[in-house]
Automatic annotation (TrEMBL):
Native source species: Phytohabitans kaempferiae
Name of one Pfam family that matches: B12-binding
Ranges for domain B12-binding: 28-167
PROSITE patterns: B12_BINDING (PS51332)
Region (Disordered): 1-26
UniProt-recorded name of the protein: Cobalamin B12-binding domain-containing protein
Matching Gene3D superfamilies: Cobalamin-binding domain
Length: 171
């Protein structure tokens, strides 16, 4: 009998993110990647997982359409060294402004680096204002549809988490 079956859980329960074996609760080298409630896009998350693996971290990827409560509970349970949120459907600003408040109100997550990136809105208008709002609300960095986003993100990770050289450093 599987562990999930032994606990009497349903099929859906059986694949809860907290059952992912690569997770290392509280581990200093684990980064949590997630989308937010409205966004069903997935390849952005796969891309981020591979990129962060290259930085030398384990990744717990919660996937798309993650409800706020699940995101908060997984962050509190796992205590990742960083939380990376991604949104490309155009609602990232709204989702991000809501979610960062939920994360920061938890004392366990008050000092955790949390960044957001992707295509956070549907137009260029107000992009800078929205980025400033997100920073003021508690994000440590915002990467909104920038061609140099990956390089800036690597720089942030190196500075804040002390990641080693990566493939991006190759000539
Ligand atoms: C495939 C796709 C879908 C698929 C998704 C399937 C799946 N399982 O993932 C389906 C058909 C489901 C879909 C649905 C929708 N989509 Co769509 N989709 C796309 C498409 C064609 C490709 C996305 C993709 O996979 N890219 C590959 C990944 C690797 O790249 P990426 O997502 O762009 O992410 C890159 C960067 O943004 C950045 N990045 C992302 N996150 C982060 C985070 C950090 C920290 C950093 C540093 C960088 C970073 O790095 C990545 C690599 O460069 C894009 C258009 C396009 N050509 O980009 C539209 C697009 C994203 N979709 C769009 C829209 C509007 C929708 C819908 C709302 C359409 C609708 N009316 O229903 C829905 C949204 C549903 C929802 N609830 O979210 C818009 C978003 C508009 C905007 N933000 O301005 C786009 C841009 C199309 C367009 N030009 O209008 N979509």
């Amino acid at each position: 009998m599987s562990g999930a079956a032994a606990r009497g859980t349903t099929g859906l329960d059986a694949i809860r993110p907290s059952d992912v074996e690569s997770a290392s609760p509280g581990g200093g080298r684990t980064v949590l990647v997630s989308s937010m409630a409205s966004d069903s896009h997935t390849w952005n998350l796969v891309y981020l997982q591979l990129l962060i693996n290259e930085f030398g971290f384990e990744v717990v990827n919660l996937g798309p359409c993650v409800p706020d409560d699940l995101l908060v509970s997984e962050c509190v349970a796992r205590r990742p060294s960083m939380v990376v949120l991604s949104s490309v459907n155009g609602h990232g600003y709204q989702d991000g402004m809501r979610v960062i408040g939920r994360l920061r109100e938890r004392p366990e997550l008050a000092g955790t680096p949390v960044v957001i990136g992707g295509k956070l809105g549907v137009s260029e208008v107000d992009r800078e204002v929205h980025a400033a709002d997100l920073l003021a609300a508690g994000f440590d960095a915002v990467y909104d549809d920038r061609p140099d986003g990956a390089a800036l993100f690597r720089s942030f990770v190196t500075t804040r988490l002390g990641a080693g050289a990566t493939a991006l450093d190759a000539p």
